Amino acid sequence: MAKKKKKTMQMEMKNVYLPSELIIEILLRLPVQSLIRF
């Protein structure tokens, strides 16, 4: 049962769209050390 729920969540996440402005706002609020890891 847990596998089915997990797979459903993964499929739902594929349909999520985040505007670039929102992504930039999130990244600007992160500490620099966290961003350097990427």
Automatic annotation (TrEMBL):
Cross-referenced InterPro entries: F-box-like_dom_sf
Protein's name in the database: F-box domain-containing protein
